[in-house]
Amino acid sequence: MKNSTLLLRSLLIVVTIAGIPHTLALYVSSTKESDIAEPQIPEIVTDEVNEGWEPYWVGKYEVSFDGIKEKAHYEIREKSDQYKCYSILLIDANGNSFEDNAIVMEDIQITDSIAKAVYQIEYEGKKLKVDSQMKMDDEGNVTLSYNYYGYEGKENWKRLEQ
Amino acid sequence: MEFLTQTFELEELQYFFDYVNNGSVFYLIIPFFILELIRYAVLKKLNWNILGDSIANIITVVAFVMIEFTLGALLLYKLYFYVYEYISLPHLPLNIVTVTCCILLADFAYYWDHRVMHRIGIGWATHTVHHSSPHFNMSVAYRFGPLDAVFPIFFSLPIVMLGFNPWMLLFVELFVQSFQAILHTEVIGKLPRPLEYIFNTPSHHRVHHGSNEQYLDKNYAGIFIIWDRLLGTFAEEKEKVVYGITEPLNSINPIKVFFHGFTRLYRSIKSTKGFKNKVNYLIKPPGWEPEK
Lengths: 162, 292
Ligand SMILES: [Zn+2]
Hints:
The structure holds 2 protein chains of 2 kinds. By secondary structure, chain A is an alpha+beta fold. In chain A, 18% of the residues lie in helices and 46% in strands. Chain A has 1 helix and 9 strands; from the N terminus they run H-E-E-E-E-E-E-E-E-E. By secondary structure, chain B is mostly helical. Chain B has one domain. Chain B starts with a helix and ends in a 9-residue tail after the last helix. The model of chain B has no long low-confidence stretch (mean pLDDT 89). Bound molecules: zinc ion. Zinc ion binds at residues 114, 118, 127, 130-131, 208 of chain B.
């Protein structure tokens, strides 16, 4: 078979097979809001908050992760109008704790009780940066969520007394 | 129509493919291999060479998986997600149509990857390992060469560029490999004609492993034999297949098995004169020799 025939047939095969799901996706998005599997941040429903309550983000939190026993303490610090978050203590499954000093969020964007940040996590030994969203309830506790190519992560940050 | 566009979670997909890809080793491959050993015994063909060959095969797969993991952890992971993020068509939703098309594309990529490995010197240096066994059974499916994990990268990255989720592609590629693995047997004869027409079957794949003249460089398919039919590399199993490579290896030493392609290539390159000839050994089809 001639090389040009090989190339032509191969291109035709690839374009056809890749074209089908793209056409379908276009069709679906034209009829309704599409569910595209991009890294997307799950919406957090904003509920009513106590009147007169002011969200205050700076401080220490005990962090528990979905599905694992290990915990951590995080601290949000403010320096010249920038909010950063550090991991300050790691607690293993047996309750032993180890001091830690690692930055997990460089720049937290806060709007009242909602905040967004690039969250630096470790997944199977690799350091990853994922977009995350946080929401504070009226007791000062925080729920954090992120979505990394379909893997959803959720964390509860319990406010620690100062 | 609804079910075509119903999206699912990556975890569900992973769960399904784990069952098929990893699970099949236990509910298909191992029982089948035992059946093959019994068959060898009944035919009075069971000997130390077959057993030693099988053990060498298992050792190559361990070496191969170690290379694959190191490569994956260091490079592939970042590369695939970088490409997916920055040089890709719009990301496709995970639904039954996307998964089906991903299987077709990954299988087509497998065809080309496989064909290239047969037709250029450096590709053959690694892939010859898989073909160098004089036997044909399930354990041969796991006989891999040192760079067998490297070549597929060039063929699967374009699929990521087409908007397919890299995780899904990984599951699907393992699925193609798993399907391919169960074809390595003499126990199954020919299947019903419609199946033999569309799918790659043990019969078609025996041909691929033949060193008979008319079987050389034929039937590169993974799951679908239609690619060979469309691109002119199909051959039907007629004459009895003689397994192995044209220049036999005659060894069950796992180290020799794993590296013999590269030692042979190195010798050819070393003994030839001229830079152009040396490069040609890497990119020309196996068996190429400089003009005298
Ligand atoms: Zn081959």
